[in-house]
Structure formats: structure tokens, C-alpha cells
Design brief:
Blueprint: H1 4-14, H2 16-35, H3 40-60, H4 78-89, H5 94-106, H6 120-136
């Protein structure tokens, strides 16, 4: 699964809380307009955001696997993880991997900077170089 379907599936899987909250807010606004009873708005918001959302979050929270380090080296960035996987599978060579990594780092958001003095690109390159060395062994 690639392209738009993969992106939609990732968003549904990882951002369902935001989508649920938006639906609750919309239902809260629509309820008094449809029924004519003004107190439906705070009632729907309270039960949706303070009762249903925490319960759903608790029920769908993933249980960590014991002893499985399959995703131990995952970065949380799907593009970087996919690039690493392609390199590990031998689909691309080291030169192509470095070129794509540089392009990926150029488009990285400024929000990922932890401290103003740190260079994010160098930290990621160093982590990727360590990963490449680990894969070569």
C-alpha cells in the first residue's frame, strides 16, 4: 500500500483521537441546532471529550511486546523508516540512500529542532550512519 491510501491509513491509525475530538465538537454544535435544546452542546462535549475519549484511548492503547525489538530502531518518521527499509532490503545502494536522505532532511520541518544550537541534520545523519554500520555487520 503506497501513496494516498497508505497516508490515509497512517493518519487514521495514529491521529484517531484528533478526528474523534473534531466529530464530538461538531456533534455538540449540531445537537442544539437540530433539537432546539441549548444544553445539548455542553452535554455532548462533556461526555464525548471527558468520558468517551479517555475510555477509547485506554481500550485501544497498544500493549508493548516483550522481547521483540522489531521496531526498536523506528524513528517515528514514516519516510525515513521506509528509506531505511529499502536500503536494508538492497533496493537502493548507499549512494542513492545518502542522496535521498539529504533530500529528506532538506524538507524536514523546523519544529523538530530540540535546541537552537543543535544541528538536526547532523544528528540524523550520524544515527543513519550508525544504522548503516549495524546493517553491514
Amino acid at each position: 500500500m503506497t501513496g494516498l491510501p497508505a497516508r490515509i491509513a497512517w493518519n487514521v491509525r495514529h491521529r484517531w483521537r484528533r478526528m474523534f475530538a473534531l466529530c464530538v465538537v461538531g456533534a455538540g454544535v449540531a445537537a442544539p441546532l437540530l433539537t432546539g435544546v441549548w444544553w445539548w452542546l455542553p452535554l455532548v462535549w462533556f461526555f464525548g471529550l471527558f468520558i468517551a475519549l479517555p475510555i477509547l484511548h485506554t481500550l485501544v492503547k497498544p500493549v508493548p511486546d516483550d522481547g521483540s525489538d522489531e521496531d526498536a530502531h523506528a524513528t517515528g518518521d514514516p519516510a525515513l523508516d521506509a528509506l531505511r527499509e529499502r536500503y536494508a532490503n538492497g533496493d537502493i545502494d548507499e549512494r542513492e540512500f545518502e542522496r535521498k536522505l539529504d533530500r529528506l532532511l532538506e524538507t524536514e520541518d523546523a519544529e523538530t529542532v530540540d535546541a537552537p544550537g543543535e544541528d538536526v541534520a547532523n544528528r540524523v545523519r550520524e544515527g543513519v550512519r550508525r544504522e548503516v554500520e549495524r546493517l553491514r555487520e
